[in-house]
Amino acid sequence: MTSKPTEQIAAERDESGDEGSTEQALTPGRVLDHGRYRLLSQVGVDDRCNVQLWRAKDGVLGRDVALTILVGDRSDSEAASNARRTLERAMHASTFNHMGVARVLDVVTQSSSDPTGVLGIVIAEWTHGTDLLDLVAEGPLPPGTAARLLQPLAAAVEAAHHAGLVLGADHPQRIRVTSDGEIRMAFPGPMAQATSSDDVRGLGSALYLLLTGRWALGPAPEGLPAAPTGPDGNLVAPRTLRPTVPLELSTVAVRALGNPDSTGTTGGVRTGAAVLRVLEQHATFETTSTVGQSGQTAESNEVWRREDPKPDQEKRKKLMISVGVLAVATLLVVGWIAASLIGMFTEANRPSGDGQIIGETGNHPGGQQPGQPPANLIKIPVNNATQFSGNGSPDNPGRLRNIIDGNPATDWGTSRYNQQLGPGGISPGTGAVLTFDHAAVPQEILINSASAGTVIEIRTVEGTPSADGGTLLGSATLGNGDTPIKLNASAPVQQILVVIKQLISKDGGYGAQINEITVNGTAG
Q1: How far is residue 427's CA from residue 414's CA, in Å, rounded to a whole number?
Q2: For the chain, what percentages of helix, strand and coil (3-state, to nearest 5) are there?
Q3: 158 with 273: CB under 8 angstroms?
Q4: Distances (CA, A) of 252 to 101, 153, 208, 258
Q5: DSSP state for residue 312 in the 8-state scheme
Q6: Tens digit of pLDDT for each residue in 249-264?
Q7: CB atoms within 10 A of CB 291
Q8: Are 434 and 517 within 8 A, CB to CB?
Q9: Cα 371-376-381 angle, rounded to 5 deg
Q10: Can you say how many angstroms the Cα of residue 312 is from the centroid of all Cα atoms in its chain?
Q11: What is the pLDDT of residues 485-506, one digit of tens each?
Q12: Which DSSP string corresponds to 443-463?
């Protein structure tokens, strides 16, 4: 006779009703919601509202998910009422789509197949990456890196509040940092009494944690030191603990938490937008290849970068030799490329049979260099870019200004969509309304992007911007780098709508990125 595994016996005992405590019932291997979700590992616990945070496997779709499990006594009317309120809030948030928040996939109320102590479950996308507490396990982050990492969460808080939602982003174990170096709300399901002010305090506490390695909002989770207070009982500012922290970052962290700053001023930071503005001013975007605690190399972000000591003299000598060799090799390569380009342009710029110049800038009238307006056009100054979203959920509005900052190294990207855009998709389009300094006639728009295959339309703005409203001025499928789009405008306008109509496959879903937009035309 074959004996049953211990986990299977325990599971059968739980299902029969003899499960003992919820803590004993919720163990790796246990299945919930009629066998659909198998628990893999517990990520954390939110003792404030009796919630357990788990990574699980969806047996139907075969993917990992994040479970926010509400536990308590079903006979306790207050606990049951609070659980219902949390589940209702999570259900309302299921239509909210933002890169700073894991998408809510489902909400499960009490199930007869689950342990008696389970009051409900919020199921969300699993956020690959690392725990926020692991991020500061070796010490606080450089201030610029901390500001950059926190931007998506701050933008999500602001967007959620505009949509009338509360995220509950005020507990460190509910927040994770992705492998791309962006902090997001990984375990949705706010407490029944949570308010938008709690979200802002959560941003302040997360920033304080990244800058100091200490938790400043309520009791600190196990193993995480609490933020110190001064003789007056007020929170010690991050800049006091680390003089390298910029004054503005230190001040916004303290005042978002509702504490007096170094001048004795209290309050003043009540929105995610206010926090986001300061983060954008101090974010750094250096790219490095570093190794995290797990030993895995993390490229193109500073998630694991620390303020390392200077290398010893022997390492410095080897580094200088390597740099010298690399410099010589680079000069040789540059010389070869230059010679090739000279030959290519000499051949390419010969007059064709009809007298036109054929060259690398063949899509630009007159053969002007990419990014420069044709000889008969001028660059139209754009003084503002505002978010357009066909479904009412903004896509990273805090980064939208990057498309008109004149720097192709910065970018704006859409949220990660689970469905393609379009009439039958989650949204008819997303993009930006560009406002000119003065009314002008746009004749060409130049879009710099790394998302080849993205479909773009340019439309006039007549009243409320619409993905299919106004007059269609032009459209194109983007390539890598600069894509010029000719516009059929005949009258001066003050605004145009740049709307993405089709995304590309990205990170298991759909998305797109735009680095820079330049508009050329004639004065109105």
Answers
A1: 12
A2: 30, 25, 45
A3: yes
A4: 22, 15, 9, 10
A5: P
A6: 999 999 999 865 544 4
A7: 10
A8: yes
A9: 50
A10: 37
A11: 999 988 999 999 999 999 999 8
A12: EEEEEEES-TT-EEEEEE--S
